[in-house]
């Protein structure tokens, strides 16, 4: 492959709410930047991952699959917390990536 070519992969990821995504990513320690049609994020000094809400896709470079999966978990955790708050439930994290709803 020529040295001036950047290889990327496109992954389907339909994000319902960009604000929720931003909150979840920030809570997980990602650096987040809002873009016109989505967000871009990274952890540390790595390459940016872009999520486009209109197309429902994330653009990553090879080797960033684990980072994207971590971002998906952070988004899911934020959705769980916000949903619990919306219905007036207490959300308790009982293990990594495991939550318990307690109705007040």
Descriptive overview:
Helices cover 31% and strands 33% of the residues. With 104 residues, it is of the alpha+beta class. The chain has one domain (9-103). Helix 1 packs across helix 2. The longest helix has 22 residues, at 65-86. The protein is elongated and about 60 Å long. The mean pLDDT is 89.
> In what range is the share of β-strand residues?
25-35%
Radius of gyration: 16 Å
Instruction: Give the SSE string.
Output: EHEEEEHEE
* Strand order, largest beta sheet: 1-5-4-3-2
pLDDT < 50 runs, ≥5 residues: none
Shape: elongated
How far apart are the first and last residues' alpha carbons, in Å? 59 Å
Find the count of extended strands (DSSP E, 2+ residues). 7
Number of domains: 1
Question: Can you count the helices?
Answer: 2
What's the overall average pLDDT, rounded?
Answer: 89
SS class:
alpha+beta
């Amino acid at each position: 492959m020529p040295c001036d070519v950047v290889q990327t992969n496109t992954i389907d990821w339909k994000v319902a709410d960009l604000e929720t995504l931003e909150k979840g990513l920030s809570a997980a320690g990602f650096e987040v930047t809002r873009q016109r049609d989505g967000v871009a994020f990274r952890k540390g000094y790595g390459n940016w991952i872009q999520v486009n809400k209109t197309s429902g896709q994330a653009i990553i470079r090879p080797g960033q699959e684990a980072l994207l999966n971590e971002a998906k978990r952070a988004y899911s955790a934020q959705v769980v917390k916000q949903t619990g708050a919306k219905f007036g439930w207490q959300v308790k994290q009982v293990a990594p990536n495991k939550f318990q709803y307690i109705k007040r």
